[in-house]
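Final report, section 2: Outcomes. Of the targets proposed, PorV/PorQ family protein is the one most frequently requested by collaborating groups, and we therefore present its record in full.
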Amino acid sequence: MAGIRYDYVAAAIPVGTAGCAYAAITGLNSGDIDVRTVSQPLGTGERYSVSDVAIGLGYGRQLTDRFAAGGQISFVQETIWRSSARTFTLNVGTHYQVSERGLHIGASLSNFGTQTGYSGRDLRITYDNDPGRFGDNGALPAEIFTGDFPVPSVFRLGAGMPFRLSPDARLDVEVDAFHPSDNSESVSLGSELTLGERLRLHAGYQNAFLKDSEVGLTLGAGVMGNSPSARFRLDYAWADQGRLNSSHRFTVGVVF
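The predicted structure is given below as tokens.
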């Protein structure tokens, strides 16, 4: 979407009889962007890129037959050309099954961490202490210090309910409420229709009530299959991204 590349890789292994440990790597890259200045609005001939990476380790456990909890610690870094900011964040979440094959609720806190700031080569400049004075050193080495800022965190509260439409059809309906630290609250809705335990159809709406939202309707489909040694899942999703047009996502899942 808009030349932006997003990559995500994760792996999980069982630990004991009721726990699971996992690792995940998330990456985002803007692609090359032309450098423009006030005096050279058409470009200087240089190009830069923005990249983000998050490396996380987590553990989750089924504490009772209905209640589960988990947490993840991540190293997060954002790089803009030759300057970067880095920090550690904490994610925690819980899930409670109110009734068997019925209502379930969950809550999570994401990206809770310390403040961070940018540093790097692009912030080192030359400085003229008195531009109107001749004969002094007009190229003093200096550095621009950026203010520290908190990592945007978000609290989520969600609920879901399955509905058995027929012996071969089930409809799952989900609703999530979001409370971010740097934006207004919003609500997302989602549904999944499962036919014969193999075909799945998806529909939803992202971030309703969010001020100046650029996202909205989502649609998708997926298929489940089995092989002698594994189960697999193939999914496709389309999402409205407002002025960025639409995005297409393909997901491949394998369970050994």
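The longest strand covers residues 83-97.
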